[in-house]
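Worked example 3 (structure in, sequence out).
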């Protein structure tokens, strides 16, 4: 059986530029398109996530323009990244997709939904916030500090960006990098300096940009984050969920969103809903409201462990089998 470890890397011509991609699962139905995080290439997706989703869905992950093995240069603008993603999806012949946007990929997913609303059926936005969100412009300083620590310790910067510096965090980081190394043939090209710098500029510009009118994105959206995300604070995800009219917000306690977001055995909802905590902390909801000060939160229940592979992203509204109790929506009301 083909897995993320063995699936071949393919290319498709998009307006004269080749885009590298991989796909898994049965090539039928609406695919789930993965949009990667800051400085990531194809080999930086966690194989357990891709294999798990591919057990029930057609999965497509790709290097956007200038990333990894794809041609061209990365644009320093999220809107252009979104336009490139749209062109790639259409070059593969798809007229409807689900999107999984992680970190900067979540910003790109928002641009896709704004520029081509008919293309998107539903989205998962993990570890990301809205354009114009306060504080996101500080990302270069956070990244720079992590790269300095990585240089001094001879480690990958993600040890300091994605995982808490605790015994459990270090163990999770070690397991994560072990999984990333499972693929030992047909590896992607590493991120280039141009790509990394352009992404940083795009993130900074996005933080300083006027907010987008996200109320026009009416498709179901799951917004997920950890309660201690270093790069995109939890209140930014709460702010994002508040701006989206059909969003569910899940904050996982004692977890940075850079770690693998737990996936339950089956989710049935108009928008995908993941169990992980019973309610969204009130101070996060208040921080998402206009005129309120931001604050972080920490709560005692641990996030649910990752469930068996496979997630059903379709079905009747609001039913979560094997769930962890009621999940509240972005406005604090109980999800129906």
């Amino acid at each position: 059986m083909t897995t993320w470890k063995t699936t071949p890397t393919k290319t498709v011509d998009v307006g004269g530029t080749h885009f590298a991609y991989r796909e898994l699962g049965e090539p039928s139905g609406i695919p789930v398109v993965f949009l990667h995080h800051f400085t990531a290439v194809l080999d930086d997706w966690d194989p357990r996530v891709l294999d798990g989703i591919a057990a029930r869905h057609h999965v497509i992950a790709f290097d956007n323009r200038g990333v990894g093995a794809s041609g061209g240069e990365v644009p320093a603008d999220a809107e252009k990244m979104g336009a490139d993603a749209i062109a790639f999806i259409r070059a593969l012949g798809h007229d409807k997709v689900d999107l999984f946007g992680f970190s900067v990929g979540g910003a790109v997913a928002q641009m896709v939904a704004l520029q081509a609303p008919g293309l998107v059926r539903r989205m998962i936005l993990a570890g990301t916030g809205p354009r114009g969100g306060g504080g996101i412009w500080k990302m270069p300083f956070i990244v720079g500090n992590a790269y300095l620590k990585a240089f001094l310790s001879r480690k990958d910067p993600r040890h300091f960006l994605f995982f808490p510096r605790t015994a459990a965090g270090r163990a999770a980081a070690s397991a994560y990098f072990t999984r990333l190394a499972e693929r030992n043939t047909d590896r992607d090209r590493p991120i280039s300096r141009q790509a990394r710098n352009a992404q940083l500029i795009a993130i900074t510009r996005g933080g300083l940009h006027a907010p987008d009118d996200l109320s026009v994105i009416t498709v179901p959206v799951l917004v997920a984050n950890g309660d201690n995300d270093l790069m995109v604070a939890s209140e930014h995800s709460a702010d994002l969920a508040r701006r989206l009219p059909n969003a569910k917000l899940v904050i996982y306690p004692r977890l940075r969103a850079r770690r693998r977001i737990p996936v339950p055995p089956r989710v049935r909802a108009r928008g995908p809903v993941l169990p992980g905590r019973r309610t969204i902390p009130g101070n996060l909801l208040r921080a998402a409201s206009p005129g309120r000060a931001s604050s972080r939160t920490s709560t005692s229940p641990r996030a649910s462990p990752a469930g068996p592979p496979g997630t059903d992203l379709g079905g009747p509204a609001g039913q979560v089998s094997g769930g962890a109790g009621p999940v509240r929506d972005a406005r604090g009301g109980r999800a129906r």
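Notes: Residues 256-336 have pLDDT under 50 and may be disordered. DSSP finds nine helices and eight strands in the chain.
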